[in-house]
Design goal:
- This protein has 459 residues and is α/β, with parallel strands linked by helices.
- The chain is built from 13 helices and 13 strands.
- It folds into 4 domains: 113 residues, Nucleic acid-binding proteins (OB fold (Dihydrolipoamide Acetyltransferase, E2P), Beta Barrel), CATH 2.40.50; 143 residues, Rossmann fold (3-Layer(aba) Sandwich), CATH 3.40.50.280; 36 residues; 42 residues, no CATH class.
- Helix 7 links the parallel strand 8 and strand 9.
- It is found in: Cytoplasm.
- Bidirectionally degrades single-stranded DNA into large acid-insoluble oligonucleotides, which are then degraded further into small acid-soluble oligonucleotides.
- One of its GO terms (cellular component) is exodeoxyribonuclease VII complex.
């Protein structure tokens, strides 16, 4: 123990030391943890509780005493099983104290069933040995028959597993016969008896698949299926073997040696037996497929027969067909001779039509020219009439404005004889000047002898 404890320091301070409860409990807990190392403790489970946090709280007891235990979630999640009320177990724990209550308890790190440690070590040694010999090689294992003619069962006649297997087989495959090879499944020398039944089933060769099964139990109850003699008998069996021992979490050497492992005996029965309903359904499907295939084959054969019947004709009918074929050839020949002429005519008609389309229509142009000539004649006639009317109008106007008409009214025109210009002013009248006098009925040359000009506003 550590010499520097709370009690020694308190005693040094005074004879009547006062220690708080928490300090006392902490000191006791420290002393317990240092005094008692990890130890295996056996007992019966009592008051087991799984908290919402995942921690386990329970007690282990025997006839004289009991001890509280706690297994925290970090350790409990790796446990191979969950203890139940009344189970015989062994715990690997550290002795501690729960300081708030001052209660002594075991802090559990591992848990196993009583005696499981030794048996489990033997299990691992045998498993490693047989695995090294190749008894568990997956390439050695065989597939189960899809449609077994008979099924064998190696188990006890009083086992509940036998009733489960028979019930399952009767429900799934009542048409398959079942052979039971009775042997005890628990007790001394059971492994050899089970192996003997496996060998008998192989010698008789009356089954196509063999089930080795029993119900669940502790490792001690299932130990017969971990014996080497049974494992070697299963591995040497010519008949495929299905192992259905215990529950889904139970593993035995027989499971590794068998061709197929089933989680339960009922599961083994389901593996080896095809379901009758599915077989009947598959049979109906195959029957329908066969009927459809046969019907299609008959249709093809009938069609082939019809084709052959059409090819098989009498000589008279063959001659008639050849005569008809000859007539068709003659018609094709005549048509082939007339085709160039018909094509040439069609080509000529096409060229003629194109020539007519591009050739000018003289009659239409002639009619156009005639129409234009008539319009020109009418236009010239109207223009001549207009010019004639204009000339007449101008002549009438000229007649009205003519000097002769003025002279006829008594007037005379006096022109200079030399220049021929009209004399307009009296000042131009000079004696001796020659003048030409124009009258209505003629003209006369005159010479002025005496002139007396006189200016007036009118006649």
């Amino acid at each position: 123990m550590n010499s520097e404890s709370p009690f020694s320091s308190a005693a040094g301070a005074g004879g009547d030391a006062v220690v708080p409860v928490s300090v006392l409990n902490r000191a006791i807990g420290t002393m317990l943890e240092r005094t008692f190392p990890l130890v295996w403790v056996s007992g019966e489970v009592s008051n087991f509780t799984r908290a919402a946090s995942g921690h386990w709280y329970f007690s282990i007891k025997d006839a004289q005493a009991q001890m509280r235990c706690v297994m925290f979630r970090g350790r409990a999640q790796y446990a191979e099983f969950t203890p139940r009320e009344g189970d015989k177990i062994e715990v690997r724990a550290l002795v501690t104290m729960y300081e708030p209550r001052g209660e002594l308890q075991l802090n559990v790190e591992a848990v196993r069933r009583t005696g499981q440690g030794r048996l489990y070590e033997a299990f691992l040694r045998l498993k490693a040995q047989l695995e090294a010999e190749g008894l568990f090689d997956p390439q050695r294992k065989r597939a189960l028959p899809a449609h077994p003619r008979s099924i064998g069962i190696v188990t006890s006649l009083q086992a509940a597993a036998l009733r489960d297997v028979l019930t399952t087989l009767a429900r799934r495959a009542p048409h398959i016969p079942v052979v039971v090879y009775p042997a005890p499944v628990q007790g001394a020398g059971v492994g050899a008896k089970l192996a003997a039944m496996v060998e008998i089933a192989n010698r008789r060769r009356e089954v196509d698949v063999l089930i080795v099964c029993r119900g669940g139990g502790s490792i001690e109850d299932l130990w017969a299926f971990n014996e080497e003699v049974l494992a070697r008998a299963i591995a040497a069996s010519d008949v495929p073997v299905v192992s259905g021992v215990g529950h889904e979490t139970d593993f035995t050497i027989a499971d590794f040696a068998a061709d197929v492992r089933a989680p339960t005996p009922t599961g083994a029965a389901e593996l080896v037996s095809p379901q009758r309903v599915l077989l009947l359904r598959d049979l109906d499907h195959r029957h329908a497929s066969l009927a459809r295939g046969f019907g299609r084959m008959m249709e093809r054969r009938a069609q082939q027969l019809d084709w052959l019947a059409r090819r098989l004709v009498s000589p008279a009918e063959r001659l008639a067909r050849q005569r008809a074929h000859l007539q068709q050839l003659c018609a094709r020949l005549a048509s082939a001779g007339a085709r160039p002429v018909r094509d040439a005519r069609a080509q000529f008609s096409l060229v003629k039509m194109r020539w007519q389309r591009w050739c000018p229509d003289l009659s239409q142009h002639r009619a156009t020219v005639n129409g234009l000539a008539e319009r020109l004649d009418r236009a010239l006639l109207r223009q001549h009439e207009r010019h004639l009317a204009r000339v007449e109008t101008l002549a009438a106007r000229l007649e009205v404005l003519s000097p002769k008409r003025t002279l006829e009214r008594g007037y005379a025109a006096l022109l200079d004889a030399q220049s021929g210009r009209a004399v307009r002013a009296p000042s131009a009248l000079k004696p001796g000047r020659r003048m030409t006098l124009h009258l209505a009925e003629g003209s006369a040359d005159i010479a002025l002898s005496d002139v007396q000009p006189r200016l007036t506003d009118g006649f």
